[in-house]
Amino acid sequence: APAAAQRRRGRRRRQVGLRDRNEGIAFYNEALMVTAGLFADAPRSRVFVRNFSRLRSLRVLADIGLITGSMSLDDAVSFFAESVPMDTQTAFLETTMYLGNPGLALSYLVGKSELLRFAGDALRRRTVTLQSVHDRVWLNGNLPFSLHRLEFLDDRKDIDLVQERRAPLSSIPE
């Protein structure tokens, strides 16, 4: 039975894992470090991490603006240059990265949110620790959080939702 379960797990990971990926782990880690007080006695470091968080949030706004067409290349460059602030050349490089990878900035925010949701749901179980959640995520590489939820929490809701919206994808094994 364990060998059959391993085979199903491998098929499931190949089917879902090749199409999906998780992002936002570094974003999550930064928030976790600040929340845990790692920078309590290092105010300049805390400001540095908060500034990166702010930049990631601004990237989401520019990413969505570029995707929807509500921002042009020039608008997004000006937005970064004024809001961050940063020099025009760096702002241009930031903007072209998101033009070439639509949704990338948004994926970091979604990934952070998904990891927070996974950790929160897991920690509601009496036998789960934050360490075991982190071990699970770090040891499994770029496994989508939908599969973490299925394998660690026996929660299929995200997988079922993905299946409903991906008609051509064959059934995900139990």
Topology:
Layout: H1 2-17, H2 25-35, H3 43-68, H4 73-83, H5 88-100, H6 104-123, H7 130-139, H8 145-153, H9 157-165
Helix pairs in contact: 2-3, 2-6, 3-4, 3-5, 3-6, 4-5, 6-8
Catalogue the unreliable spans. none
Distance between the termini: 13 Å
Helix content: over 70%
Largest sheet: none
How is this structure best described in words?
- The protein has 174 residues and is mainly alpha-helical.
- The chain is 72% helix and 0% strand.
What is the gist of this entry?
By secondary structure, the chain is mostly helical. It contains nine helices and no strands. Helices cover 72% and strands 0% of the residues.
Keywords:
9 helices, 174 residues
